[in-house]
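Morning. Coffee machine broken again, so started the prediction first thing and wrote up yesterday's gels while waiting. Chain of 151 residues, entered below exactly as on the submission form.
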Amino acid sequence: MDELELEFELDTRLANDCIVMGDFPLCRLLLMNDSNYPWFILVPRRVGATEIYHLSKEEQYQLIDESSMVAEIMADSFSARKMNIANLGNMVPQLHIHHVARHEGDLAWPGPVWGKHPAVPYTQEKIDKIHSRIKSMITQEVSFVLNENMS
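Came back before lunch.
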């Protein structure tokens, strides 16, 4: 673990809106606490990073690798018609990449999910099922969190 990772803190808005699932070699894996959509967020554990180009070339490649793996697992696991992957940062400047599995029947289809409908928090039972499903499908090195914030 390098110094930048030791000083890393998750933005409070992400911490309040998400459930920590675990850590990949570079990114923290979050589940957006909105059961309207399968929605994960990757946050590189690098202090001060607000853009992908703030990462080293090796970290950029690692981010793409982790993002691609999460997208593929989500597409398979949630039978997505389309994976929406976005890095906006207008409200939360900390570098983070949204991964949303989309279906024709979802509440916001075909528009964006942001601000369309009020979030519906997951039940603990559903969080546990998603955590187990994702954990069983990831083949890369990852440190999963038995979430203290799962309540």
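The mean pLDDT is 89. Going to sketch it on the whiteboard this afternoon.
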